[in-house]
Each structure stands twice: as C-alpha cells, then as structure tokens.
C-alpha cells in the first residue's frame, strides 16, 4: 500500500438489490477504498494485495476458505448485522483474521417490537382488527 493510500475493503456491490446501501458506502469511503466483488474477480492478482478488510452486508460476500486464501493482507471482516453465527469463526481465525459486528445496532427496535407484540397479544388487538374488518 502506497503512502496516503486508503486500505481496500471488499464489498459485494454498491447499491442495487444486493449491494451495500449508498449511505453506508459513503461512510466506508471516508476510511477505505471500496473494491466490489466484480472488480476483485476481474483483477484478482492486483486487488488481492490491496484488500485488508471485508464488509459483509446481508451475509454477502460469503466468507469461505477460497476467498480467505486469495487475500494475503486481510486483517478484519466487519459484519453489518448483529450476529456472527453465519461465519466459520474457527476457520477464519486460522488465517489470523478478526471478525467484528454491530451488536447494538438493532437492540432498541427489537425491544420495541417485543413490547408491541406483548401488548397486541394482551389486548387481543389482532383479533379485534380481524373482527372489525370482517363482513
């Protein structure tokens, strides 16, 4: 990596139906040079040396042995979700790579939904709604 060059981060894509959301990509661009999976696969030899991180968004890109073997400078895999149960942590750590996530990202919305479901159940809101709109 040249002086002043941002470290590369591999993302599946930017935008579209499968890619990282535009606002998240803008935040990542402040700290990383974004490399899409298409760019990586198109020039593996050059791109593999630049990639130091992978940003996993909605379980993409899939992290497997072949990918890890092709990224000699990889240091960290960042998951945009709460859990890491979809990663083979033992295999990843055997490459000396760390895994991180966003554990509190959906804590408040999850609690809100839990409370809403308990209140709806206790007050029989769904049943009342069905009766209200049935013929």
From TrEMBL:
<dbReference type="GO" id="GO:0016618">
    <property type="term" value="F:hydroxypyruvate reductase [NAD(P)H] activity"/>
</dbReference>
<dbReference type="Pfam" id="PF00389">
    <property type="entry name" value="2-Hacid_dh"/>
</dbReference>
<dbReference type="GO" id="GO:0051287">
    <property type="term" value="F:NAD binding"/>
</dbReference>
<dbReference type="GO" id="GO:0030267">
    <property type="term" value="F:glyoxylate reductase (NADPH) activity"/>
</dbReference>
<dbReference type="GO" id="GO:0005829">
    <property type="term" value="C:cytosol"/>
</dbReference>
<dbReference type="InterPro" id="IPR006139">
    <property type="entry name" value="D-isomer_2_OHA_DH_cat_dom"/>
</dbReference>
<dbReference type="InterPro" id="IPR050223">
    <property type="entry name" value="D-isomer_2-hydroxyacid_DH"/>
</dbReference>
<protein>
    <submittedName>
        <fullName>HPPR reductase</fullName>
    </submittedName>
</protein>
<feature type="domain" description="D-isomer specific 2-hydroxyacid dehydrogenase catalytic">
    <location>
        <begin position="22"/>
        <end position="114"/>
    </location>
</feature>
<keyword id="KW-0560">Oxidoreductase</keyword>
